[in-house]
Amino acid sequence: MQPGGLDGSQLIPGLAPSMDPLEALLGPFPCARVRGLPFEATLEDVLVFFQGLVVIDVVLVPHPDSGEAFVVFANPMDFQMGLQRLVEMLIVVLCVLIANSLSPIHYHLQRPPEYGA
């Protein structure tokens, strides 16, 4: 069975289908992976950026060159609005936004942080 709607369509247009069986059953996980953040970016910075949207959790992943965050939204609507907000901001600041699943979050949480080279 292909992930997505019962008719074979994607649940959220524009998102690649996932091979995660849980996402195939429940629909896409409303998580955005934001890359290219300033290294000094804090949890508060991310929450202020997404102010007005329901953010359940933020996982900051520090890298030597730039920051990265996984932002979990309460529902697909807030997720889509968060993506739109980031797309509008890309004109001013260079960030990479990737719709994501749970497995990269688990990977980053289970490995030690990388500081310096």
Tags for this model:
single chain, 117 residues, alpha+beta, Alpha-Beta Plaits, four-stranded antiparallel sheet, globular
- How far is the N terminus from the C terminus? 44 Å
Q: Roughly what fraction of the amino acids lie in strands?
A: 15-25%
Strand arrangement across the biggest beta sheet: 2-3-1-4
Strand-pairing-aware structural class = alpha+beta
Q: Could you tell me the CATH topology label of the domain at 31-110.
A: Alpha-Beta Plaits
Q: Any idea of the CATH class of the domain at 31-110?
A: Alpha Beta
Number of helices: 4
Multimeric organization: single chain
Helix content: 25-40%
For the largest beta-sheet, the strand count, sense and barrel status come to: 4 strands, antiparallel
Low-pLDDT segments: 1-7
Q: Mean pLDDT, as a whole number? A: 74
Order of helices and strands: HEHEEHEH
Please state the CA-atom Rg, rounded to the nearest Å: 15 Å
Q: CATH homologous superfamily name of the domain at 31-110?
A: RRM (RNA recognition motif) domain
